[in-house]
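In the current project phase, work has continued on tokenised descriptions of protein folds. One protein thus recorded appears below exactly as we store it.

——
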Amino acid sequence: PQSATSIEDAYAALGVNSSASDKEVKEAWRQRMSENAPDKLIAKGVPVEMTNVATERAQEIQTAYEMIRQTRPTMR
């Protein structure tokens, strides 16, 4: 996966539309971060290669969320 380069990419990284409410965006961010939490995957015995991918994905998700927060005055 690529890092979010536009606001549309940021919404896609979180799996929501730009019309999603602030609450829906935050819930999507939490869900995606939970799914890709390296610590949780290590505890489940997932191979190191997969945890490295999950770490990169978590960074992409966090960057996307921050980008969305910057464009939404109600989320700042």
Notes: The first helix runs from residue 7 to 14. The helical segments are 7-14, 22-35, 38-43, 48-71.
